[in-house]
Amino acid sequence: MRTIRATAVPLLLVLLISACGQGQPEQTQAARQQPAPTGSAAAPTPTPGKDGIGRGPTPKPPAKPASFGNPGGKASIPAEARAENTSKPNRKIGTGTKASCTSDAVVKAVAAGGIITFNCGPDPVTITMTATAKIKNANGPKIVLDGGGRVTLSGGGKRRILYMNTCDEAQGFLTSHCQDQDSPRLTVQNLTFTGGNSTGDKTEGGGGGAIFVRGGRFKAVNTKFVDNRCDASGPDLGGAAIRVLSQFHGEPVYIVGSTFQGGVCSNGAALSSIGVSWVVLNSVFRNNKAIGNGANPARDGSPGGGSGGAIYLDGNLFTLRIAGSVVQDNTAKEGGGGVFFVSNDRTGTMRVENTTWKGNKSAGFETSGFPGIFFLGARPPTVSGPSLKR
């Protein structure tokens, strides 16, 4: 029988077979360049927050806090006039949602006093007050209400929003000289007040549609007052936004970086006081109207009022300084479309510095050479920077 021998396989073929048997063949360059499949055959791309991946959708960033006043104002701010530090509040209004920020929560927090902030969620919120928030005089000495630039307190056109009175027995007496004590010291900051209305409330003479203050100390920083009201007639009441009577040792009320617009009252449709000094810095007053008639003292047969479209100040020794601000398009049915300033004993003084002043109409009377101002005091108002324009 014939024997058949196996023929030796060439070395090159062995090497090729060996290489092909190791793992998967490499993709060709053409295959590598093919686009990923699309349509229903494509594998879905995992989305963070879905399919059990990640920590949930990216939360919506909070709304940018509102900023008020005159951004072009360059008046320097003294330390005591600056915003208060609220990084360690005594209490917070709300639990993180709009629904938790209620009128009742505001009333309770204000009565308790201390440093108060809001926790109403990331978006702006309006809280319509069903009752006036009142400060208890013993729950100080410092009371700060800070809205973080996202909170509006509304009186709903029906009521005053905030009340402090060191001489109101219902809020507690602290001293035997309630009109001249250093506390409570109230600050409102980073807030909007709208729809405040004190019409018909003649406590302490009336006025103060959004805020009424007597005694202690008060300041407003980066705060907006819009469309507030007080009584439409009366010779000496006013302050659709703010009414202040007496401050500790005659220290001034500070208004810093704030806006006042659309106020309507018999007198002083933004600010009003008797015997109180004011320092107004980098703020704006527009379209406020003093609508009373008959002036002060009231003319025979009239209810009186109609003076100080934006600001109405009366009393004896007090001062007014307005710096880095805008006072524009305010009107008075009687005197002082922008400011009515009467120092009865002629000791008071007034300064206007680097302020835009125009369009303030006095339908009845004003001081010659000072458009939009009626002034009686120690000497004529001092004006530096831009001239007052009609």
UniProtKB/TrEMBL annotation:
Feature: compositional bias, Low complexity: 26-44
Stored SUPFAM superfamilies: Pectin lyase-like
Protein name per the record: Outer membrane repeat protein
Signal found in the keyword field: yes
Signal peptide range in chain numbering: 1-21
The species this protein was found in: Asanoa ferruginea
Keywords assigned by UniProt, alphabetized: Signal
Entry keyword annotation includes Mitochondrion: no
Region Disordered, residue ranges: 26-99
Entries under InterPro entries matching the protein: PbH1, Pectin_lyase_fold/virulence
